[in-house]
Specification:
Blueprint lengths: L14 E3 L6 H11 L25 E5 L15 E5 L26 H11 L6 H9 L26 E2 L3 E2 L29 E7 L12 H8 L8 E5 L18 E5 L7 E2 L3 E3 L2
Parallel strand pairs: 6-9
Antiparallel strand pairs: 1-10, 2-3, 4-5, 6-7, 7-8
Protein backbone atom coordinates (compact mmCIF):
# COMPACT_ATOMS: atom_id res chain seq x y z
CA UNK A 1 0.00 0.00 0.00
CA UNK A 2 1.33 3.43 -0.94
CA UNK A 3 1.90 5.59 2.11
CA UNK A 4 0.67 9.16 2.05
CA UNK A 5 2.97 11.91 3.32
CA UNK A 6 2.05 13.50 6.66
CA UNK A 7 -0.43 16.36 6.59
CA UNK A 8 0.62 19.95 7.21
CA UNK A 9 -1.75 22.67 8.34
CA UNK A 10 -1.94 25.99 6.50
CA UNK A 11 -4.03 29.08 7.20
CA UNK A 12 -5.97 30.21 4.14
CA UNK A 13 -7.41 33.70 4.26
CA UNK A 14 -10.60 34.60 2.42
CA UNK A 15 -10.30 34.75 -1.37
CA UNK A 16 -12.39 34.60 -4.51
CA UNK A 17 -11.48 32.06 -7.19
CA UNK A 18 -12.45 31.99 -10.84
CA UNK A 19 -15.20 29.44 -11.38
CA UNK A 20 -13.23 27.76 -14.18
CA UNK A 21 -9.76 27.67 -15.72
CA UNK A 22 -8.85 30.55 -18.02
CA UNK A 23 -10.18 29.79 -21.49
CA UNK A 24 -8.73 30.24 -24.95
CA UNK A 25 -11.14 33.13 -25.60
CA UNK A 26 -10.10 34.88 -22.38
CA UNK A 27 -6.40 34.44 -23.09
CA UNK A 28 -6.91 35.64 -26.66
CA UNK A 29 -8.45 38.86 -25.31
CA UNK A 30 -5.36 39.39 -23.15
CA UNK A 31 -3.00 38.85 -26.10
CA UNK A 32 -5.05 41.16 -28.33
CA UNK A 33 -4.94 43.91 -25.71
CA UNK A 34 -1.25 43.62 -24.86
CA UNK A 35 0.56 41.97 -27.77
CA UNK A 36 2.00 39.46 -25.31
CA UNK A 37 4.15 36.65 -26.74
CA UNK A 38 4.16 33.41 -24.77
CA UNK A 39 7.25 31.45 -23.79
CA UNK A 40 6.45 28.69 -26.31
CA UNK A 41 6.39 31.28 -29.10
CA UNK A 42 9.91 32.51 -28.35
CA UNK A 43 13.08 30.80 -29.61
CA UNK A 44 15.50 29.46 -27.03
CA UNK A 45 18.41 31.73 -26.21
CA UNK A 46 21.65 31.00 -28.07
CA UNK A 47 23.50 32.22 -24.97
CA UNK A 48 21.68 29.84 -22.63
CA UNK A 49 21.69 26.92 -25.10
CA UNK A 50 24.90 27.27 -27.13
CA UNK A 51 25.09 23.51 -27.70
CA UNK A 52 21.83 23.49 -29.69
CA UNK A 53 21.54 24.26 -33.38
CA UNK A 54 19.34 27.14 -34.53
CA UNK A 55 16.74 24.61 -35.68
CA UNK A 56 16.61 23.00 -32.25
CA UNK A 57 16.24 26.40 -30.60
CA UNK A 58 13.14 27.18 -32.67
CA UNK A 59 9.93 27.93 -30.75
CA UNK A 60 7.89 24.91 -29.73
CA UNK A 61 6.56 22.92 -26.84
CA UNK A 62 5.65 19.46 -25.58
CA UNK A 63 2.62 17.67 -26.98
CA UNK A 64 1.11 14.45 -25.68
CA UNK A 65 1.30 11.71 -28.32
CA UNK A 66 -0.43 8.37 -27.59
CA UNK A 67 1.79 5.34 -27.97
CA UNK A 68 0.97 2.39 -30.20
CA UNK A 69 0.51 0.06 -27.25
CA UNK A 70 1.69 -0.68 -23.71
CA UNK A 71 5.04 0.89 -22.76
CA UNK A 72 7.26 1.25 -19.72
CA UNK A 73 5.45 3.87 -17.65
CA UNK A 74 8.71 4.96 -16.06
CA UNK A 75 9.77 6.64 -19.33
CA UNK A 76 7.60 9.70 -19.94
CA UNK A 77 9.53 10.55 -23.10
CA UNK A 78 7.66 7.77 -24.90
CA UNK A 79 4.44 9.80 -24.95
CA UNK A 80 5.66 13.41 -24.83
CA UNK A 81 6.99 14.86 -28.08
CA UNK A 82 8.85 18.14 -28.51
CA UNK A 83 6.87 19.78 -31.31
CA UNK A 84 8.16 22.88 -33.14
CA UNK A 85 5.35 25.36 -33.61
CA UNK A 86 3.23 24.08 -30.72
CA UNK A 87 1.86 27.03 -28.72
CA UNK A 88 -1.41 28.22 -27.27
CA UNK A 89 -2.98 29.00 -30.67
CA UNK A 90 -1.79 25.62 -32.01
CA UNK A 91 -1.87 23.43 -28.88
CA UNK A 92 -1.19 20.11 -30.61
CA UNK A 93 1.25 21.47 -33.21
CA UNK A 94 1.20 23.75 -36.27
CA UNK A 95 -1.62 21.86 -37.96
CA UNK A 96 -3.96 22.29 -34.98
CA UNK A 97 -6.01 25.39 -34.14
CA UNK A 98 -8.62 26.72 -31.74
CA UNK A 99 -11.66 26.44 -34.01
CA UNK A 100 -14.57 25.43 -31.80
CA UNK A 101 -12.34 25.48 -28.73
CA UNK A 102 -12.84 29.00 -27.43
CA UNK A 103 -14.42 27.71 -24.22
CA UNK A 104 -11.70 25.09 -23.61
CA UNK A 105 -8.97 25.90 -21.10
CA UNK A 106 -5.94 27.59 -22.63
CA UNK A 107 -2.88 25.30 -22.62
CA UNK A 108 0.73 25.58 -23.73
CA UNK A 109 1.22 28.36 -21.17
CA UNK A 110 4.34 28.54 -19.01
CA UNK A 111 4.33 29.99 -15.50
CA UNK A 112 5.36 33.44 -16.72
CA UNK A 113 2.48 33.46 -19.20
CA UNK A 114 -0.05 32.70 -16.48
CA UNK A 115 1.46 35.39 -14.27
CA UNK A 116 1.34 37.94 -17.07
CA UNK A 117 -2.36 37.25 -17.71
CA UNK A 118 -3.15 37.52 -13.99
CA UNK A 119 -1.33 40.86 -13.69
CA UNK A 120 -3.23 42.23 -16.70
CA UNK A 121 -6.55 41.07 -15.22
CA UNK A 122 -5.78 42.52 -11.78
CA UNK A 123 -5.76 39.14 -10.07
CA UNK A 124 -3.14 36.54 -9.15
CA UNK A 125 -2.39 32.83 -9.23
CA UNK A 126 -3.53 30.78 -6.23
CA UNK A 127 -1.16 29.37 -3.67
CA UNK A 128 -0.97 25.60 -3.34
CA UNK A 129 -2.95 25.76 -0.10
CA UNK A 130 -5.67 27.92 -1.66
CA UNK A 131 -6.06 25.55 -4.60
CA UNK A 132 -6.20 22.53 -2.30
CA UNK A 133 -8.81 24.18 -0.08
CA UNK A 134 -10.93 25.14 -3.08
CA UNK A 135 -10.65 21.70 -4.67
CA UNK A 136 -12.06 20.06 -1.55
CA UNK A 137 -15.40 21.73 -2.17
CA UNK A 138 -16.11 21.50 1.54
CA UNK A 139 -16.49 17.73 1.28
CA UNK A 140 -15.19 14.89 3.41
CA UNK A 141 -12.59 13.48 1.07
CA UNK A 142 -11.88 9.96 -0.05
CA UNK A 143 -9.45 8.68 -2.69
CA UNK A 144 -11.13 11.14 -5.06
CA UNK A 145 -12.04 14.77 -4.50
CA UNK A 146 -15.74 13.85 -4.53
CA UNK A 147 -15.65 10.67 -2.43
CA UNK A 148 -14.65 7.01 -2.45
CA UNK A 149 -15.76 5.97 -5.95
CA UNK A 150 -14.23 7.17 -9.19
CA UNK A 151 -17.54 7.18 -11.09
CA UNK A 152 -20.29 7.10 -8.43
CA UNK A 153 -23.42 5.43 -9.80
CA UNK A 154 -21.79 5.50 -13.23
CA UNK A 155 -21.46 9.30 -13.30
CA UNK A 156 -18.11 10.59 -14.61
CA UNK A 157 -17.19 13.44 -12.29
CA UNK A 158 -14.18 14.95 -14.07
CA UNK A 159 -12.28 14.92 -17.34
CA UNK A 160 -9.66 12.27 -16.62
CA UNK A 161 -8.22 9.37 -18.61
CA UNK A 162 -10.54 6.40 -19.18
CA UNK A 163 -8.92 3.34 -20.71
CA UNK A 164 -5.29 2.19 -20.80
CA UNK A 165 -2.58 4.80 -20.46
CA UNK A 166 -0.86 5.99 -22.64
CA UNK A 167 -2.32 4.30 -25.71
CA UNK A 168 -6.10 3.91 -25.32
CA UNK A 169 -8.42 6.64 -24.05
CA UNK A 170 -12.13 5.99 -24.46
CA UNK A 171 -12.89 9.52 -23.28
CA UNK A 172 -14.68 11.16 -20.39
CA UNK A 173 -18.28 11.76 -21.44
CA UNK A 174 -16.99 11.67 -25.01
CA UNK A 175 -14.12 14.10 -24.47
CA UNK A 176 -10.59 13.01 -25.37
CA UNK A 177 -8.16 15.79 -24.53
CA UNK A 178 -9.46 19.04 -23.06
CA UNK A 179 -13.17 19.70 -22.67
CA UNK A 180 -15.15 22.96 -22.52
CA UNK A 181 -15.14 24.45 -19.05
CA UNK A 182 -18.33 23.50 -17.24
CA UNK A 183 -18.80 20.22 -19.13
CA UNK A 184 -18.63 18.38 -15.79
CA UNK A 185 -20.43 19.14 -12.54
CA UNK A 186 -19.15 21.86 -10.22
CA UNK A 187 -17.86 20.98 -6.77
CA UNK A 188 -19.40 22.12 -3.50
CA UNK A 189 -17.92 25.60 -3.90
CA UNK A 190 -19.30 26.03 -7.41
CA UNK A 191 -15.92 25.49 -9.12
CA UNK A 192 -15.67 23.69 -12.44
CA UNK A 193 -12.72 21.53 -13.53
CA UNK A 194 -10.81 22.15 -10.30
CA UNK A 195 -10.01 18.44 -10.67
CA UNK A 196 -9.19 17.11 -14.15
CA UNK A 197 -9.21 18.74 -17.60
CA UNK A 198 -5.91 20.64 -17.16
CA UNK A 199 -3.25 20.89 -14.51
CA UNK A 200 -3.18 24.38 -13.01
CA UNK A 201 -0.19 26.52 -12.08
CA UNK A 202 0.08 27.75 -8.51
CA UNK A 203 2.36 30.44 -7.12
CA UNK A 204 4.29 28.14 -4.78
CA UNK A 205 7.72 26.69 -5.46
CA UNK A 206 7.83 22.90 -5.49
CA UNK A 207 9.95 21.81 -2.54
CA UNK A 208 9.76 18.18 -1.49
CA UNK A 209 9.08 18.92 2.17
CA UNK A 210 6.04 21.01 3.03
CA UNK A 211 7.81 21.84 6.27
CA UNK A 212 10.45 23.76 4.28
CA UNK A 213 8.12 25.29 1.72
CA UNK A 214 7.71 28.59 3.53
CA UNK A 215 11.20 28.81 5.02
CA UNK A 216 14.03 31.07 3.78
CA UNK A 217 13.95 33.79 1.18
CA UNK A 218 12.16 33.54 -2.15
CA UNK A 219 15.56 33.18 -3.84
CA UNK A 220 16.45 30.27 -1.56
CA UNK A 221 13.12 28.55 -2.19
CA UNK A 222 13.54 29.02 -5.94
CA UNK A 223 17.00 27.44 -5.82
CA UNK A 224 15.77 24.57 -3.65
CA UNK A 225 12.94 23.83 -6.07
CA UNK A 226 15.16 23.25 -9.10
CA UNK A 227 16.07 19.74 -10.14
CA UNK A 228 19.68 18.67 -9.56
CA UNK A 229 21.84 20.12 -12.31
CA UNK A 230 19.23 22.70 -13.31
CA UNK A 231 18.82 26.35 -12.44
CA UNK A 232 15.16 26.53 -13.52
CA UNK A 233 12.82 26.76 -10.51
CA UNK A 234 9.85 24.43 -10.35
CA UNK A 235 6.32 25.42 -9.32
CA UNK A 236 3.51 23.29 -7.92
CA UNK A 237 0.82 22.11 -10.30
CA UNK A 238 -2.54 21.09 -8.84
CA UNK A 239 -5.74 19.38 -9.90
CA UNK A 240 -4.63 16.71 -12.36
CA UNK A 241 -5.61 16.67 -16.02
CA UNK A 242 -7.29 14.72 -18.78
CA UNK A 243 -4.15 12.55 -18.87
CA UNK A 244 -4.43 11.34 -15.28
CA UNK A 245 -5.01 7.58 -15.22
CA UNK A 246 -5.23 5.27 -12.19
CA UNK A 247 -2.30 3.11 -13.31
CA UNK A 248 0.02 6.07 -13.83
CA UNK A 249 -1.12 9.41 -12.42
CA UNK A 250 -3.71 9.05 -9.67
CA UNK A 251 -3.93 12.78 -8.99
CA UNK A 252 -7.61 13.21 -8.23
CA UNK A 253 -7.11 14.18 -4.59
CA UNK A 254 -7.02 17.89 -3.76
CA UNK A 255 -3.77 17.21 -1.87
CA UNK A 256 -2.04 15.72 -4.93
CA UNK A 257 0.70 17.86 -6.45
CA UNK A 258 3.18 17.74 -9.31
CA UNK A 259 6.42 19.66 -10.00
CA UNK A 260 6.84 21.61 -13.22
CA UNK A 261 9.76 23.80 -14.37
CA UNK A 262 8.65 27.41 -14.74
CA UNK A 263 9.75 27.61 -18.38
CA UNK A 264 7.81 24.54 -19.53
CA UNK A 265 4.50 24.60 -21.37
CA UNK A 266 2.60 21.49 -22.41
CA UNK A 267 -0.70 20.47 -23.97
CA UNK A 268 -2.28 19.68 -20.58
CA UNK A 269 -1.29 22.63 -18.35
CA UNK A 270 -3.41 25.74 -17.83
CA UNK A 271 -4.32 28.00 -14.92
CA UNK A 272 -7.05 29.87 -13.09
CA UNK A 273 -6.88 33.03 -11.02
CA UNK A 274 -7.87 34.23 -7.57
CA UNK A 275 -8.40 37.54 -5.79
CA UNK A 276 -7.77 38.24 -2.12
CA UNK A 277 -10.83 39.59 -0.27
CA UNK A 278 -9.14 40.60 2.99
Amino acid sequence: MRRRPPQHERVVRAFDMAAAPTTNDEFAAFVAATGYVTVAERPLSAIDFPHLSAARRAPGSLVFTPTGGPVDLRDWQQWWTWTPGAQWRHPLGPSSNLTGRGSHPVVQVAFADAQAYAAWAGVRLPSEAEHEFAASGGATLGPYAWGRDRDPDGQIMANTWHGRFPYLNTGANGWVGTSPVGAFAANGYGLFDIIGNVWEWTSDYFIGSHANQLNGTAAQRAADSAEPGSQVPRRVLKGGSHLCAPEYCLKYRPAARSPQPEDSATSHIGFRCVRSTE
